[in-house]
């Protein structure tokens, strides 16, 4: 009889343990949902510190939950809204690497480029972030070539490439002002070689013709004029080129 009661007691303990484990699991899931809901409420209210604290709890304590990808994404969103673009780019990249199947991965891949574009400096300054933005948008295009954001990426790449071309033009003009014409010629040629799709293409050719004329390299100037007329479909500086050509000996 004593063994019977021991057996019944053991069974009851097992049932109770299973029940408690099930309840604990349900409480855990509910807790994650509650934490995420609280985090989103803080995020929507603009309470960035509280939102980050709660998103971090999900990232650290529930890294395999259904909310983990969103928590990581919204950490990056908070960084972006606070103007912390380097940190935001890093956290968006974590989403893309750690949660590649999440719907947030695509948004994050695009926003990496947006972060670097925000950091890109004017053409007369260092262009490292411009290059990084182009690389990020190019990567987005390669991963999601049919997405509507791929077209947006293309337009942004063109704009950023214009800035790089402008950088060369700024340097060339500096050499022009200091009468280092041969050095200026190098940078005009770089625009033509590296950025034929930029808005500075025509101007670079015309400035090159002018430099060749000033250096008395007249045969090269004639070749550059012929090149201009065959490669610029809708010229806006043709009058200047015509005048230069008439001035050639």
Oligomeric state as shown: single chain
How helical, in percent, are the residues? over 70%
Mean pLDDT: 90
Beta content? under 5%
What is the CA-based Rg, rounded? Answer: 31 Å
Low-confidence stretches: 4-28
CATH architectural designation of the domain at 30-105: Alpha Horseshoe
CATH class of the domain at 30-105 reads: Mainly Alpha
The largest sheet, given as strand count, sense and whether it forms a barrel, is: none
Secondary structure: elements and pairs:
Layout: H1 2-44, H2 48-61, H3 68-81, H4 85-98, H5 103-119, H6 128-143, H7 148-177, H8 181-194, H9 201-214, H10 218-231, H11 238-247
Helix pairs in contact: 1-2, 2-3, 3-4, 4-5, 5-6, 6-7, 7-8, 8-9, 9-10
What would you note in describing this structure?
The longest helix is centred in the N-terminal third of the chain and has 43 residues, at 2-44. The protein is elongated. The chain has helices spanning 2-44, 48-61, 68-81, 85-98, 103-119, 128-143, 148-177, 181-194, 201-214, 218-231, 238-247. It has a domain at 30-105: Serine Threonine Protein Phosphatase 5, Tetratricopeptide repeat (Alpha Horseshoe). It is mostly helical and 249 residues long. It starts with a helix and ends with a helix. The protein is built from 11 helices and no strands.
Summarize the structure.
This protein is mostly helical. About 80% of the residues lie in helices and about 0% in strands.
Task: Sum up the structure in keywords.
mainly alpha; 249 residues; Serine Threonine Protein Phosphatase 5, Tetratricopeptide repeat; single chain; 11 helices
């Amino acid at each position: 009889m004593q063994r019977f009661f021991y057996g019944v007691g053991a069974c009851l303990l097992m049932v109770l343990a299973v029940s408690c484990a099930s309840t604990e699991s349900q409480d855990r899931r509910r807790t994650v949902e509650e934490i995420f809901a609280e985090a989103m409420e803080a995020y929507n209210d603009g309470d960035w510190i509280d939102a980050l604290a709660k998103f971090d709890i999900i990232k650290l304590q529930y890294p395999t939950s259904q909310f983990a990808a969103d928590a990581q994404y919204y950490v990056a969103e908070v960084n972006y809204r606070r103007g912390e673009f380097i940190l935001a780019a890093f956290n968006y990249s974590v989403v893309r690497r750690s949660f590649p199947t999440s719907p947030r991965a695509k948004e994050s891949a695009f926003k990496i480029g947006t972060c670097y574009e925000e950091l890109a400096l004017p053409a007369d300054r260092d262009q490292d972030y411009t290059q990084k933005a182009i690389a990020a948008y190019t990567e987005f295009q390669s991963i999601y070539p049919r997405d509507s954001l791929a077209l947006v990426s293309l337009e942004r790449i063109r704009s950023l490439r214009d800035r790089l071309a402008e950088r060369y033009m700024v340097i060339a003009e500096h050499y022009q002002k200091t009468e280092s014409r041969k050095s200026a010629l190098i940078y005009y040629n770089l625009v033509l070689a590296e950025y034929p799709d930029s808005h500075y293409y025509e101007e670079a050719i015309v400035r090159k013709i002018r430099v060749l004329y000033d250096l008395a390299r007249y045969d090269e100037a004639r070749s550059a004029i012929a090149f201009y007329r065959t490669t610029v479909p809708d010229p806006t500086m043709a009058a200047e080129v015509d005048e230069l050509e008439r001035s050639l000996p």
